[in-house]
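Lecture 7 notes: from sequence to structure.
We start with the chain below.
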Amino acid sequence: MPFRPLIAALACVGLPMLAIAQTPQLKLPPFANLQQKATESVDITIGSLALGIMSGLMDEHDEGSAEMKKLIKGLKSVQVRNYRFDSDFAYSKTDIDAVRSQLSAPAWTQLAQVHDQKKNEDVGVCVALDDHKVTGFAIVASEPREFTIINIVGAVDLDKVADLQRQLGLPDVGAARIPPYLL
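Predicted structure tokens for the same chain:
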């Protein structure tokens, strides 16, 4: 997806970390019918119980595991949906717009909106705020043959997003390629 490095850069610029507060959990459509149409799909939902179990299984004496354990401990949930298709708009734009409309609620603040009319591509990066604390993070990116939705709820150090991606098996949104001075 051409926007992946841009998504990750926009997501990381100016956000030192996400803080714990009220849950800005997005309600995602089931997208069940899309798995059959998609040439590639990722459908991940990891709740607080699974994250707690993962954290509990990590070795505190190993430096890398201890860092990851600290990162995961602050998370409440992670949702990732990514679908890629052979033809344009094999998915319902209405479903994507329904997710985007949730990000216009008062708790959400838009960090970036990128729209390319020629390529019919849209990217939105938002954070949820509660009493001036960031409590959630969302990316909604769509183009004719692919869309991605990422919703992270809880505290996460955005410097560690690439590590979190690898640890949880999430799709690459380009965080590993962001120069450190932008984080």
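Points to note: The longest strand covers residues 133-143. The chain has a mean pLDDT of 78.
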